[in-house]
Automatic annotation (TrEMBL), chains A, B:
Annotated GST N-terminal domain residues: 1-81
SUPFAM superfamilies (UniProt xref): GST C-terminal domain-like, Thioredoxin-like
Compartments it resides in: Cytoplasm, Cytosol
Record-level Gene Ontology MF annotations: glutathione binding; glutathione transferase activity
Similarity comment text for this entry: Belongs to the GST superfamily. Phi family.
Keywords from the named record: Cytoplasm, Detoxification, Transferase
Claim: Transferase is one of the keywords in the record: yes
Protein's name according to its UniProt entry: glutathione transferase
GO BP terms, alphabetized: glutathione metabolic process; toxin catabolic process
Length: 215, 215
């Protein structure tokens, strides 16, 4: 059964797609135009009642929340493609820890920066310089902890690439390429090397080749 | 090995403790006084570099982020105590989905309400009535979707109690008991019945008996 992924132009669906490529799972994508509000239309809300991207359809099975989808496929196809959960339950626990850190510590300031530096200007809305400064400061402190961690292990959860690293790719891409603040990463030697490593994986290059970011 | 849980008076560590009780895992707690800033002291930061609660120590194994700890123990002791992940990989995927919904849709508005209605007044800081109103409105829309879901299944992930329900307990407790806004739940028949069901589990009653909320 081919997995259908909705909204491939946006960041959170790309998190799912790069995982499907790593796991060698066949998929197809369904375009959803967020700027036209297609994710708030009744047909879409039947699949994802919160009106958020992505959602996947795998036969009769429907699942949303990008990081839940990552976990589902990493577990279901544990022995196919890249093992993204580590070898032991203890390694998997550490993968879960850093996946939560990505969601709760890394993503919120980067998201605020994306909204204020990229999205608002595009929509003709004013950016909030105070939010931008505070988010840069918060992110800097988070990346200091990443720097310390990545000075000891090659990847976040240990010496193996995992869901925890993979989950940083879409918003990391904005951070490094579109906002003029890549110094936040480049000033930190180990974070910078880690980013070059994970963003040069064939899976992520394939995602960027197949699906453009809308900005 | 007895699991050590840091910071049992606070909400996120309670999420871990109720899980340990459900899984029949022996634990002890270490008091951390957040009002004195003990979670920002160097000894604590060695365990949890972001200075957040909780962290657990299980022999040499140290893990933080409450929902990562839930997942670790639900997996490690799959066949001990309450099964919190469902029977199949597909059920587990839906547990993951609603655990993410709790983290990203339910928790943020409730957290803002707790901060503005309970914490700021206690700290002598001004609350923001606009944030309170916006958070109530956001939460109401989220609970409308819960109401729809819970009209079809007894619990969030299906007809079995899971990590997804359990994870709502600590902030749900604030919402229902300390803020004068329990109508948000009580006006929704199925959400209200669901709350009564999960909050009357012996595990959660035990948590409330053992560890007071600081407010």
């Amino acid at each position: 059964m081919v997995v259908k992924v909705y909204g491939p132009d946006y960041a959170c669906p790309k998190r799912v797609i790069v995982c499907l490529i790593e796991k060698e799972i066949e998929f197809e994508t369904v375009h959803v135009d967020g700027f036209k509000g297609e994710h708030k239309e009744p047909e879409y809300l039947k699949l994802q009642p919160f009106g958020l991207l992505p959602v996947i359809q795998d036969g009769d099975y429907i699942l949303y929340e990008s990081r839940a989808i990552l976990r589902y496929y990493a577990e279901k196809y544990k022995n196919q493609g890249t093992d993204l959960y580590g070898k032991t339950i203890e390694e998997r626990g550490v993968v879960e820890q850093w996946l939560e850190v990505e969601a709760h510590n890394f993503n919120p300031p980067v998201y605020n920066l994306v909204i204020n530096i990229l999205v608002y200007p595009l929509a003709g809305l004013p950016s909030d310089p105070k939010v931008i400064e505070e988010s840069k400061e918060k992110l800097g402190k988070v990346l200091d902890i990443y720097e310390e961690r990545l000075s000891k292990t090659k990847y976040l959860a240990g010496d193996f690439f995992s869901l925890a690293d993979l989950s940083h790719l879409p918003f990391g891409h904005y951070l490094l390429n579109s906002m003029g603040i890549e110094n936040l990463v480049r000033e930190r030697k180990h974070v910078s090397a880690w980013w070059d490593d994970i963003s040069n994986r064939p899976s992520w290059k394939k995602v960027l080749e197949l699906y453009k970011f809308p900005m």
